[in-house]
Amino acid sequence: MALRLASSLRIRLAAGGYGARSGLPGCVRSHLPQSRQVWQTPRRGPQDFWRTGATGITAGCLGSLVGLGGGFIAVPMMTSWVGISQHLATGSSLAVVLMTGSSGAFGYIRHGQIDYEVALAIALGGMIFARAGAKLMANTDAARLKLYMGMLQVAVSPLIPLKAHFSKSRPATEEKRVEAPCVDGSESILAGSEARAGHGVFDAERFAKMFVVGSLAGFLSGMFGVGGGALTVPAIALSTSLPQHAVVGTSLLAMLPPAVVGTAVNLANGNISLAVAGPLAAGSFLGGCLGSLGLAPLLPEVALQMLFAVLMASVGARTIFTARRLLAAAGPK
């Protein structure tokens, strides 16, 4: 009997290594009811800390250069390089999206570059379905979650260059600025009734469209730990006459409430680690500053977007290959 117990314990500990549902290497899941289970996370070494920070810098820098959140880069890097589970990487990534998105949205709010009606519609749909996405993530096998993440990366990759095409294909008059006081007293505000909160006639059809977009973006955000901007930015650009700055600002603000909901669900399910989210957030902030302020003015925009699209598709294809190999090794269930 003792030998059987020891053998069973060795098998369980081996299953709790890299890439398993158990989170960090050597993690043990507590035997509590499903609603109260938490991850028991051991102390991480300096090497893991710096790797996580470097992941944040890379994801933040690349994301800021092409106008996307870094979740699409951070999650696969954390699972393959840092060595944490798919679930812990996804949950911690969404928490970082919440922190970095808040700082980004604040700047657009200060300059009046928000359409609050569109943001409200997206946020309402996103909050409802982000919870469903986060719950589904918690109950999805790690290998299958990795497979779905790879599929999403491949699907999103062509949207990166297309997003810029959408904004450039609209009439130039929509980018015009007028001198008018904003709510906070600042001078410059984007022209057009949709660029300011509380102005213009309520458009029920547009509200419904944005609600649907927000629902899908919120579900993907909760399920995969990404910001949803790859979906919301092109949708807002196509469905409204907002200038590009207002499109980005509205998208950032709209996806904050869904990120709050998804993060709360992930906390309840134990799929967030402060040891991961802390250095990841700090690195994402530094990387975002490096990309937007340092590298962006020096690099050709179109070539950069095409390169990032190819990189995203390649990472997605590799993720799919790895996930299928894991599923094949696990065998039919």
Automatic annotation (TrEMBL):
What are the TM regions of this chain, as residue ranges? 53-75, 87-109, 216-240, 246-267, 274-296, 302-321
Is Membrane a UniProt keyword of this protein? yes
Q: State the annotated membrane topology for this chain.
A: Multi-pass membrane protein
Q: Which residues form the signal peptide?
A: none
Question: Where would you find this protein in the cell?
Answer: Membrane
Q: Which domain of life is it from?
A: Eukaryota
GO cellular-component term (any): membrane
Q: Mainly resides where? A: membrane
Alphabetic keyword roster: Membrane, Transmembrane, Transmembrane helix
Q: Which Pfam families match?
A: TauE
- Per the record, the coiled-coil ranges are none
- InterPro entries from the entry? TM_pro_TauE-like, TSUP/Inactive_protease-like
Q: Which PANTHER family match?
A: MEMBRANE TRANSPORTER PROTEIN MJ0441-RELATED, MEMBRANE TRANSPORTER PROTEIN YJNA-RELATED
Q: What is this protein called?
A: YunE protein
Question: Species name for this entry?
Answer: Symbiodinium natans
